[in-house]
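User: quick one, fold this
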Amino acid sequence: MARLPWTRLRRQSNSDGLSFGLGAEVSLSSLLCVRACSERMHDPVPQTGQWLQSIVQGYFNYYAVPGNLTSLGVFRDRVLALWWRTIRRRSQKTGSTGRASFILAQRWLPQPRALHPFS
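Assistant:
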């Protein structure tokens, strides 16, 4: 079975032994998101928010195992940063604040949680 080039198996030791999880290399996914966000720059925010919500939820559906929540949070934060950068580039106004970014994240991007528990 071929392995996707941007994924790797991550091993982390703890007091109980070893725990395994899928660690996602965010770089390629982020690059794809940059291109897609720039193509959707002039779309309405709710439309882009729904689209990004489906992208992030699909990513979580695949990679959400216990021990991998930190990297899922990093992916969500990077997607939000790229989206926020794209929104700020839509006009020359500088009235954008970090609070508005937080509101966008709360409204559209799901929080990471373990969807595939080890049993």
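User: anything notable?
Assistant: Residues 44-111 form one domain.
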